[in-house]
Amino acid sequence: MDQDKEPVDQPFSESYEHLLDDYSHFAPPTADEVLQGTVLSVTGKDVIIDFGYKSEGIAPIEQFQTSSGEITVKPGDMVDVMIDHGGEQQEGYVLLSHTRAARLRVWDNLDKAYQGQLILSGRVLGRVKGGLAVDVGIEAFMPGSQADPRPVHNLDGLIGQDIPVKIIKLNRRRGNVVVSRKLAVEEEANARKSSTLEHLSEGSVVTGAVKNLTDYGAFIDLGGIDGLLHVTDMSYGRIGHPSELLHVGQEVTVKILKFDRGKERVSLGLKQLEPDPWESVAERFPVNARVIGRVVNVTDYGAFVELEPGVEGLIHISEMTWSRRMKHPSKVVKPGDQVEAVVLEVHAKERRISLGLKQLEPNPWTTIDSRYSVGSVVEGRVRNMTDFGAFIEIEEGIDGLVHVSDLSWTKRVKHPSEILKKGQIVQAVILNIDSSSHRLSLGIKQLQPDAWETYFQNHQVGDTVHGRICRLASFGGFVELAEGVEGLCHFSEVPGYSGRRGSEGPPLTVGQEFDFKIIKMSEAEKKIGLSLRAVADDDEKTRLEDYQRQAAAATTTIEEVMSLKDRNLE
Prior knowledge:
single chain; CATH 2.40.50.140
């Protein structure tokens, strides 16, 4: 009866799982299935691998060696393998291929990257026709136009580098892969730019790398976006070119001065990270203080002196020497000279300091009253001439003006060059001294007696003088009486001239010489009135008097004759 009993059945699910487990050890893998195995041991020729299915396989050691012969695996490592169905078992081991498995794994990864437009890392192997060969697990092709967002003239510079790439074309059946570094770089740059733009704000301090240098500044890569660091914002000191302070690739910390998010424009500053030296310049360089600096620039109007980095003062040409004859500041200083100067003015807001050199020496005008007096004769060199006169330097820093009216008593001088020459040594008389205004009036004609004064001393109204008509006016003729002395004979003082319309022209001509009678004299106005009519009247009067004397004499003679006749008759 016990024999007729049926065995107690095990639960169906447990029995089914047990059968599946047993079967899995015997079901062969598919032809293209990639298996993961564990390295059991490494011999001189092979690598023994447990790939499951209660089997062990063997793969050639060459598939696990680098080009230099170095073995890349050790017992316990997990590796990808495939059953090499084209081979035969060796010593009970299944022949495996790691190379085929790795290649299939690479293609799977490349396909995922292509479908997902992911960025891969590849190593540039070398030049090929039209571009570069890139190792992305297999050898891929990168056209030259896809090497960089900007044109690259020398692709050899990328050989041997690890670069980011994106797959732009993939044909697994033909084994072709085309990659682009350009797209990968642009995507990374856009990602960095988006991240950077989120964190940028005016006034913040950021770090970037110098990307490019120009004459006017430097472009700083802040992470996908470039900012301009202008040369004027690099240092408070004088900079001729940005290369004096920065070089390409240098990492710098800068301050964001302006940020236009819409136009993606960023203005940067480097000097703004340090205190502005002009804020306390008045304390360090007070007025009248003596300072020492270096001449950094010389212009037509003066010289700029660097007192400290970022602080410059101007020595105007008028503050270089007490003399007025200096033509150009380069006659006194040149770039690179170290000079001592006096602080004249400080304008911190305008960032200006006025300096002086001549203030280091005594002002010759302060003692001119004790060294010279009005009326004294001095000697100097003609330094400059203008329409109104000539400047004569009588000593260093002291120039006197000879007005054109004080050049000659006798000549009508229109320009000083008629009497003087530049550089000529002349004597002059001091006419006036104004030390407060730094003015000295000189005269050259005063060295000789005044011709008018002498003439007035030797002549008076009523005198008859001889003269030559030197020029004519509408009202009369000017008569040269002596050198530098002229008189006027009005036409009304010329006999026979009526002045009526239709009458003959002027009765006088230039060059004629006559005797004139002085009818008016004004020494203060230097005017002498002459008359030809008075001379004629005098001549007529003289002739009448002579006639009368002769007639009287004749009458006397007749009376004497008659008287004598009468006496004889008696």
